[in-house]
Design a protein that fits this description.
The structure is a single chain. This protein has helices at about 30-40, 50-75, 75-95, 105-120, 130-154, and strands spanning about 1-5, 10-15. The radius of gyration is 25 Å and the shape is elongated. Helix content is about 60%, strand content about 5%. A two-stranded antiparallel ribbon has the order 1-2. The protein is mainly alpha-helical. It starts with a strand and ends with a helix.
Length: about 150
């Protein structure tokens, strides 16, 4: 048994066809879609190795990825970057909220968030103020937790 690699992971592929004599003919397929599916197949495997059900699943996955790409392309880059910046805020918060705060790890995330805010100042669109506020908040939390840790240890 082989497997089909897709962005959603590997899927087992039974190379024996489930169709037999008298089965309905397969509908015609989009050549561009065929190319995308073929590119995702493991080396040495071809489209002919997929049964109709496997092919339909592969087509659905390729179409979902195309839809996701289209949604991403239609979203302003500033919105995507701000979203990633908030992910850095959350990462810093996770490290600070650990049973024993991981200050060095939080510092990396806070510095990365700061680099985005300062490096893209004026270019983050409607989300810029929220990202700046998040940076201020995580910095204050860091200082408070660091002071508490130093008071306890020292």
């Amino acid at each position: 048994m082989s497997s089909l690699w897709t962005p959603a992971g590997e899927h087992p592929v039974d190379r024996q066809s489930t169709s037999g004599p008298g089965d309905a003919a397969e509908p015609p397929h989009d050549a561009g879609l065929d190319d995308e599916i073929a590119a995702a197949l493991p080396e040495g495997m071809s489209l002919d190795d997929l049964n109709p059900e496997e092919r339909a699943r592969a087509e659905a996955m390729v179409k979902e990825m195309a839809d996701a790409r289209e949604r991403l392309i239609s979203t302003p880059a500033a919105t995507i970057v701000a979203n990633h910046a908030m992910g850095l805020y959350e990462l810093a918060a996770l490290h600070l909220s650990a049973q024993t705060p991981k200050f060095a790890e939080a510092t990396v995330a806070i510095d990365a968030l700061s680099a985005i805010v300062t490096g893209l100042s004026g270019r983050l669109g409607d989300d810029e103020e929220a990202v700046k506020h998040a940076l201020d908040q995580i910095r204050m939390a860091f200082v408070q937790l660091k002071s508490q840790a130093e008071a306890v240890s020292g």
